[in-house]
């Protein structure tokens, strides 16, 4: 079984009451409880379905460099130029997605990974069952 983890900026929290804005009002927590239950049930159902559809398969992968397609989104900024975090803190030194031509940019916070990788899983003589890229 292959399990991949990723993140999103648009889904509800995976468990009730884990919002970044502090304690959530009751209607939000109820929605989060429903989403959490749906998420857990959906993951369990997908594992069951995958088990029921087991068959011999091949796996293959490839990678290439795509230096023109990636960039560092986290930058060290001049002191005092990063707004407070959601909790009012002001100790951050690195900002995510600052304006590209900002005079407050100091340097990237780390290297850029220019490698793009593709993974394909397919039945021994068939079309891909799954393709994962990163």
Describe this structure in words.
By secondary structure, this protein is of the alpha+beta class. It folds into 3 domains: 18-54; 57-70 and 113-134; 72-111, no CATH class. It contains 1 helix and 6 strands. The protein has one helix spanning 26-52, and strands spanning 57-65, 74-77, 94-96, 105-108, 115-123, 130-133. The strands form 2 sheets. A 3-stranded antiparallel beta sheet has the order 1-5-6, with no helix packed on it. A 3-stranded antiparallel beta sheet has the order 3-2-4, with no helix packed on it. β5 and β6 form a beta hairpin. The longest helix is centred in the N-terminal third of the chain and has 27 residues, at 26-52. The radius of gyration is 21 Å and the shape is flat.
Largest sheet at a glance? 3 strands, antiparallel
Spatial gap, N to C terminus: 18 Å
Count every beta strand, where a strand is a DSSP E run of 2 or more residues.
6
Gyration radius, rounded = 21 Å
Total DSSP helices: 1
Mean pLDDT: 85
* H/E element order: HEEEEEE
Q: Taking strands numbered 1, 2, ... along the chain, how are they ordered across the largest sheet?
A: 1-5-6
Helix % is: 10-25%
Low-pLDDT parts are none
Number of domains: 3
Question: What share of residues are in beta strands?
Answer: 15-25%
Structural class: alpha+beta
Outline, from the CA principal axes?
flat
């Amino acid at each position: 079984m292959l399990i991949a983890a990723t993140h999103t900026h648009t889904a509800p929290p995976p468990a009730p009451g884990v919002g970044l804005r502090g304690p959530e009002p009751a209607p939000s927590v109820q929605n989060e409880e429903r989403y959490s239950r749906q998420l857990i049930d959906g993951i369990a159902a997908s594992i069951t379905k995958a088990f029921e559809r087991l068959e011999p398969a091949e796996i293959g992968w490839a990678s290439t460099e795509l230096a023109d397609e990636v960039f560092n989104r986290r930058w060290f900024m001049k002191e005092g130029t990063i707004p407070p975090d959601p909790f009012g803190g002001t100790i951050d030194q690195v900002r995510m997605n600052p304006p590209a031509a900002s005079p407050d940019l100091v340097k990237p916070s780390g290297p850029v990974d220019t490698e793009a990788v593709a993974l394909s899983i397919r039945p021994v003589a068939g079309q891909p069952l799954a393709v994962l890229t990163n």
